[in-house]
Amino acid sequence: MHAVRKTLSALLLGLVASAALADAALLNVSYDVARDVYKDYNPLFQKHWKAKSGETLELKQSHAGSSKQVRAVADGLEADVVTMNQVNDIEFLMDKGLVAKDWAKKFPNNASPYTSAMVFIVRKGNPKNLNDWSDLVAPGVQVIVPHPKNTGNGRNTYLSAWAWALKQPGGSDQKAQEFLGKLLKNAPLFAAGGRDATTTFMQRKMGDVLITFESEAEMIAKEFGKGEFSVVYPSLTMQTEFPVAIVDKVVDKKGTRKQATAYLEYLWSKEGQENAALNYLRPRDPELLKKYAASFPAVKTFTVDEVFGGASKAFVTHFKDGGTFDQIYVAK
After folding, report:
1. Are strands 24-31 and 57-64 parallel, antiparallel or unpaired?
2. Pick the CATH number of 116-240+300-331 from 3.40.47.10, 3.10.450.50, 3.30.70.20, 3.40.190.10
3. What is the pTM of this model?
4. Start-end ranges of CATH 3.40.190.10 in the chain?
5. How confident is the model over 139-164, as pLDDT tens digits?
6. Do residues 151 and 66 make contact, with C-beta atoms less than 8 angstroms apart?
7. Is residue 117 helix, strand or coil?
8. Which of 145, 141, 116 is nearest to 130 (CA)?
């Protein structure tokens, strides 16, 4: 017992010492499947910032379902920056007075440094021949997806399926709602977040198809091997964006605005964009997108603005209490 106490004391002293060595510390509160992106990005930025400013910077990460994360920030979790997978979550913090009203103009590309697309992950050999959204509503097909009410991954899946149904011959909002009802009935559960959905599908072996970001497919390949699954690009899918913002109240309180701004700006640097590409996120830099073209097949996408009139409008219509998701889910 004495040895255990000594070990714990040594660990705690080490943590205190490492924190004391840092000139400043930033907390990045992010969505569930961004762990690897920022695990790789943080050392790159720390090296850059040390060379530029002479400061040693401690960088901390927090990851969970995106809506859960922003609620935690609103409730007092002191994030210097938020890096999310849907505009609504940044706007939630804007409405709480934590993020600037013009946050999307603070950085290029509406403050989204890279993009992705929603794809299907199917079992090896695609035994149920799942090639497009219409195949996912067949009897006996089990669809694994994070909760559309609480996660960006789940919402992007829902909106992708809705847009596909809307674009079919004779498509209408009513038909799209009926289609989503069938699709959600084939979901045996709603995962807590994107990484939890992956674990459910790959480790617990539940479901016939996992719907997730294109980037997550490559993370699965790294962990489980490419031969264990296939990636299917549906005929239409959503171009997903990943907005970032400074949490003004926190950086002003801590005096970390300079570091937080630089941390997010560096996502658009050549090094930051290459890190995105190496983590299978589509970089905004056209040269790097061309360099890594083999990782990013051509796919027909739509934006939330084009089909739904913007993220805010989509949220109110579909995901606010009493919206179409609630109506469908009650029917489910």
Report:
1. parallel
2. 3.40.190.10
3. 0.82
4. 2-113+242-295, 116-240+300-331
5. 999 999 999 988 888 999 999 999 99
6. yes
7. strand
8. 141
